[in-house]
Design brief:
This is Mpv17 / PMP22 family protein. Keywords: Membrane, Transmembrane, Transmembrane helix. It is a single chain. With about 220 residues, the protein is mainly α. The protein has one domain. Helix content is about 80%, strand content about 0%. It is globular. The protein starts with a helix and ends with a helix.
Length: about 220
Amino acid sequence: MKKGDFLWLLSLLAVSAILLSPATHGAFIAMTKAHPYLMGFIKVAILATMGELLAIRIVVGKWVQPVGLFWRMVIWGFFGMAFAVAFPIFDAGVRGAIGAGLISDFGGSKLATAFFISTFMNLIFAPTFMGLHRITDTYIELCNGKAANLNKVSIHQVVEHIDWKILVSFVYLKTIPLFWIPAHTITFLLPPEYRVLMSAFLSIALGGILSFVKKKGQKA
């Protein structure tokens, strides 16, 4: 095991220890309820960035810092804040539709309710989020990770640089139905204070899965 592998695993264990330790678990829940935006920022910024680093590690075979790591982490944090409000919006919306008789919960099934919340969120919110994330990542790459270069890169350059075919045919049409809808069905079975955290952990899992697929394709 390389030093970078050890540090990454140590970081993941540290996060897990905070969640599992009786001494810190209560404080974590209280902070999440009292400051959902702040905690959403922190949780997703840390865990999703760890997922990005892991994905690069699997594909390249070593730990490499991507261009603009700090700004990527900040962007993830803001997305975490968006998750903090999007999750309850879709939860309440679907439950309201069930109450109005517009959607069936199959006799009060919690699994069915969670599935429909996940489905509507991933069909409505996820494509916008994923497209915006691809735009921000491309901006960071074209600006070489420096905010001072923002005025040197136009939105037209960013749009032309993005591989929209991969975004639509793979990210939208494959990861959403095959990974995110089933995964977030589990997420919406959890208490609300764990959902953004679960989503952040899922980003690590998906990053690892996609990296193995990409590495396998490169070998083939």
